[in-house]
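thread: overnight batch results

M.L. [08:02]
morning all. the overnight job finished for the chain we discussed friday. pasting input first so we're all looking at the same thing
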Amino acid sequence: MKKWQKEMAGFTLVETLIVLLILSILILIMIPNLMQHKDFAEKKSDEALVHVVESQMTMYELEKATNKKPSLEELESADFITKDQKEKYERIMKKEQ
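M.L. [08:03]
and the structure it wrote out:
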């Protein structure tokens, strides 16, 4: 007896929908976890920047032989910090207040 239908290789619609459903569930589980990691990394980055700027303030005081705490503008003009670091530090300090 001859086969009238060819054997088709591939996935059926139901199999494809099940795979998509499983992938959707996995993505829904992973997204909140990824957001938590992003927030944690941003917090650690901010803490590191604050530490760097405060260290640079101490270095400035030692180099200039003064007990006066330098302003951010003084640090930037003396090339102890960059403009980007200054702006981020100001943003962090405003957020903490």
